[in-house]
Amino acid sequence: MPGELTQRPAVRVGDRLVVRVDDIAFGGEGVARLNEFVIFTPFVALGEEVEIEITEVKKRFARGRLARIIKRSPQRVEPLCPYFGDCGGCQYQHISYPAQLEIKQKQIADLFQRVGGVSCEVIAPVVPCPQPYGYRNRVMIRSQWDKLKQGLNIGFIRADNRLVVDIEECKIAEPAINEQIRQVRAHPPPKGGIKTVLRISPEGWEVPAHSFFQNNFFLLPRLVETVRDRVSQSGARFLIDVYCGVGFFSLELADLVEWFVGIELDAHAVRAARKNAAHRSRRNGEFIMGATEEFLPNILARFPPENSVILLDPPRTGCPAGSLELLRQTRPRQVIYISCHPATLARDLNVLCSGDVFELTRVIPLDMFPQTQHVECVADLRRQDPLCRG
Q: How many domains does the chain have?
């Protein structure tokens, strides 16, 4: 077509190609190029020369399956898990842990530069997890009837389809979780299609069965330390904790502020948050049950914005547009945004910083999810002086 700089190569499903992996994309797939036509392939490492089989072809890209490693990367290691490559839970077990951190650092820096023009200097080095295996305190396993073996598969969704991989243990889960998996297998569900959540309760916290809590106890102290440090630097006197869950951040930060308010839609979580506050003798705050969009305007109006910090820890989908616009209008002193989805985080931060309303001062990634594509980020935004804008 006129205007196109390159033509799409004549690539078809089933073709075998030899390519060089020159990047690792979000999601963990390796990136190779044929005349700028991108081919994504999972379970490869940076710099490797590999033979792949094309499995899918689109207008602007294709996907392949690793068939053979021709030139092995020094970053490649042997996965600990026998199900790796079949199970869809992990993407990076074949890559050394230091290299995983480098990959996530580059991915975040590239994403923020592309979405918001953020300098890589704003992105801190990824904080490593002290225990890259055996760290998960919560998993969801599924049961599915296998027609071929005439029995149940109990495990996790496959990497390449929606079938369930039958597993006996999970290498990234804590030992106590693996014991629970063994108990489920010893006493299986009556049929397929059943989801079972297994978790370890955090010591000293009340957490209802289906309420959210961070899934990695080993790096959790560093996450708290990071957020406390950023809030302390701002000197804010009031904290509004949006999507507060069982009150974890509200209560961990309560001693830094005069008053805090937590907002949460989950009624069970709010009741637990109040009990957690009583257990810690935190009396300088309150928890409100309801939708953020409904209660946030009145709560923001109660506190002087120049002395308030807003803490956002939303679902992976990010914050509603109306809430972001409300923050732009009220302009609190500081916004701390915590997210396990860098793409939606970058999108929302771009909205908040548009027109120099806020300045993104720092993004601190923490590897709460070793061996996987996911990474937790703490972003610190400060309001700009209106006299200095435009």
A: 3
